[in-house]
Each structure stands twice: as structure tokens, then as C-alpha cells.
Known about the structure:
The chain is mainly β. It is built from no helices and 11 strands. Strands 2, 4, 5, 6, 9, 10 and 11 form a 7-stranded mixed β-sheet that branches.
Amino acid sequence: QVQVVESGGGSVQDGGSLRLSCAPSTSNIFRVSWFRQAPGLEREFVATINWSGGYTYYSDSVKGRFTASRDTAKNTAYLEMNSLKREDTAVYYCNVRLSVGTSDYWGLGTQVTVSS
């Protein structure tokens, strides 16, 4: 069973920055994606990064403000979040797709709160 651990959430003011980390318990990773879920809303896609090539893709709502990256030596993915807005407040989840098979593994999430 693959374990996925997120960290780095917290509370910041409007315009602030946070960096989230995602550490899977395996290195056999195809891609890491970030999702978020605000109270009363469905979970939505935020960003994804291909593990081998580092290719990234973002939702329109975060493009230009968030940056997904990975450190293959540390087996850790990151989500750098800048120019945070109140509407970015949510629980952020890391999703890991392995390089073999089609199973996805989720972390328990980390809370991000942006206040004015």
C-alpha cells in the first residue's frame, strides 16, 4: 500500500505564499497531481506534474500563481502557491499515479486558509 503524506498547509493573508509538499512512499511514480476541496464544493483539479519529464499543467484559476515541481532525489513533489486569494482556501490533496497500473493514491490533505 502506497502512503502519501502532504505537509506545508497553514494560514496566510491575502497575497501571501505557501509551499505544499507531497511525499509518496514509492519512487515508481508516473505523475503527481494536486486537488483541492473547499467547504460545500466538489474536489477540483489544481495542477499536475509528470514525474519523469517534469511537464506541468494547471487549472485556469491558479495558472501564473501556482507552480508544481518535484525533486526526484527526495521523492517529493511541491506546490508553490503565490499571490494567494481568499478563494484559494481549501483542503489540498496530493494524488499519486504510479508508473505501473492505473491506481491512484491520495493523501489525507492539508488545510490552506487565506484571510484578508
